[in-house]
Predict the structure.
Amino acid sequence: MLLESEMAERILREAVSRGGEFADLYVERRRSLTLSLEDGRLEKCTSGIDVGASIRVVHGRSISFVSTDSLDEQDLVAAARLAGEGAAAGCGEVKALAADGDVPVQPVKQDPAAAGVSSKVSLVEAAESAARSAGREVAQVSIDYGETTSEIQVADSDGRLTGDRRTRVRLTTRVVARRNGVIQTGYESAGALGGMELFDEFPPRQIGRLAAEKALVMLDSRPAPRGRMPVILHRGFGGVLFHEACGHGLEADAVEKGSSVYAGRVGEMVASELVTLIDDGSLAGEWGSGAIDDEGTPTRRNVLIEAGHLRGYMYDGVRARNAGVASTGNGRRQSFRHPPIPRMTNTFILAGDAEPDDVIAATERGFYAKTLSGGQVDPATGDFVFGVSEGYLVEGGRVTTPLRGATLVGNGPDALAKVDMVAGDFEMNIGICGKEGQGVPAGSGQPTLRVSEMTIGGTGE
Amino acid sequence: MMEILSETAARALAHAAEAAVDEAEAYVAETAATGIKVYGGKVEELTGGSSRGVGIRVFRGSAMGFAYSSDLSREGLAATVKAAVKNAQVTAPDDHAGLPRPAAGYPQGELYDPGVTETPLQEKIELALEVEAKALAYDQRVSQVEQAVYHEAQSKVAVANSLGLEGAYRESSCYLFVQAIAAVGGEMQTGISFSTARNPRDLDAPACGREGASRAVDLLGAVPVESMTCPVVMDPFVTASLVGVVGSVLTGEAVQRQRSLFAGLEGERVASEAFNLVDDGVHPRGLASAPFDGEGVPAGATGLIERGLLTGFLYDERSGRRDGRRSTGNGIRGSYRSIPRTAPSNLRVTGGTATREEIIASVDKGLYVTGVSGVHSGANAVSGDFSVGATGRLIDAGRLSTPVRKVTIAGDILSMLRSVAAVGNDARWVPFGGSIEAPTLLIAEMSVSGR
């Protein structure tokens, strides 16, 4: 525990001393290390420590939130007093804090803090050398390694006292390949909630080689066409499309305001019956997991869409209270400096039963999106765009020419309704999801699947 | 208060001097921010936060190590120096590494306005409420204002290095932001706007509310159009997004690392004659303005593209040395937690003469783009590939007509810059993708993908 429970209780009492129905205290101590290799040299080695806390007071539909880079009681009480100023009158209640004894902190097999920095330098160098040796046209390789260990503590006026310890490691490789003035890029990454055991499953050499191969294959690409056609999303990366295209619209803040296309539609058919969409922050070792969310609610598996039917939304504590339901364990924040908001954890579409090869074979002419580079959605309209960093033309049921500069444009509900084939393969991918200026680790996944029609925004024919 | 930060930097350097390093730098920053969100005429969220900390860079020989901490106590500084020294034992030597020498002086200019402190909280809440009210009153079809936000930040920065460099300044900034929703039947459209200033009393709440609302209302009934190749008129928000991507690779660092589409093109024509781009780190209205950059080098103005010719790149100390040039004062730090890297300060597209109306009237059949999405994933500044989602209006015989959504505009970045056919005289400061003063632009030809 970062703070003693008696001290936490005193701070919470100060927070509600002028009223308010609910207050919570979030304490965090985060240690981080990053290594960057570029131009063939280990250029950067950075370490840092962030320590601080924030206090939130909820009164009616209003939230006051104050953060400070200090764990001194005096500073925290001052922050609590400031957060409590928004409440009108009276005095709120603080129940005696009782520690949650049974939070299963996710295991770390090989703690990065215990591994020497030289072993991490070796990982980075291995990824680099594999990328360099993938082809003579590899012009630049950048490798980033990052590890963070975050200890958190949550105490609230309902008497909750809990905590988590989250260790994450990540390795990313970016490659630039060049041939006769044509330049293309490739990107690959692996990350986990866990320790160095990640690299047993994803060897750095493999991460480096895959990034280089993506850049090299795109040297032979021609400009992507434009117009509508069937789109096959390769397993894994397509998950980020559903994260954007429907995940954000299922977060309770947009739903509460009626500014989501999915608001008020629980029970309705919002997708093809082949689609079952899950958000699960309790998955062992996954990038977006944690034992609890950042309000202390244990994470769990939430079925969002089941066989095409909308089953529910993702709630944090505040929106759940407003809606009269229980939090789904989706109250997340970037750090103690940010208030929690409803966020996805690991969001994925369950595997179907088609063979991946059959999905391609069944497509006369279409676009095969193998790697997506990210995208953006307007939750009010559901309209989304996605960059495709590795894409191919499908002709006569076969994958043919690589295509560059493609962007997929569509509408969330429309794309979900048009999912017409779902394969039995499955993969998760990692990313940092941005919302309201906060970035949090988020996993997304899906099997290979086909959307019968989407717009490709290229420049070719 | 400034003295306290400078004194902290000096104490950090004293610890480094005991640690047998060749060069050392301490960057100390303190920030206080307040945010207000209103919804339905009431305060929805009030946030306050303060942070301060130190970032320490040390060089052993030519190998660099960096560490940061929010613990500014004697023990905290000593531990941070120790961590930086340890990190320098891991990195490879770099012939061009090193810290800048003291400058002869720093540009003067007031970046701090006491109005951020003196204006009562209630008045700031009123500003956000006024944004919401003006957006709702703009048109019956505005169904709600999903976000109406007031935000302010005050920062103090001090930097010092073992070569005798010393500098400190403070600044303030504030903004209003709105996201309005217009609805008819089952259809919803969104529109955004903002207003920025150094003093809350200089913010324009009514204009912010009205513009967010009008952008949403103007999109009602939007449909995808047929795919076509046509002239594209970009409004200042869209121009800023494009310029942000261009500016990110107009740096010596990106060129040296073979990550810039402008590599090898210095002195060449990279844009049409109508196009001028300058990085101006001291412009009074630029929110990225400062007397010096993240390593204490004086900020200034650097011409990047003049009448279509690529005239220069941005440098920090290290990338400058590598090219045998001086730093342009573009060693930008996100916060005390990060190492400086070469990046634009304020980018300005200058020299436009046409009005927005003249530009639109000059187009027979084309697309007026008022919003782009997916820029971070759809615009590749290394390869030059550019394909992003777009919303806006069709232009028909020189007039705005049907609203458009769910289309993309695509091209390669150099071709787009070379086919800039007109630059508007309506440049305004836009805080998207950096701090950018952007006007309306006419691109003679782009690929539009739709139905």
User: Anything to note?
Assistant: Residues 347 and 444 of chain A are 5 Å apart (CA to CA). Chain A touches chain B through 78 residues (CB under 8 Å).
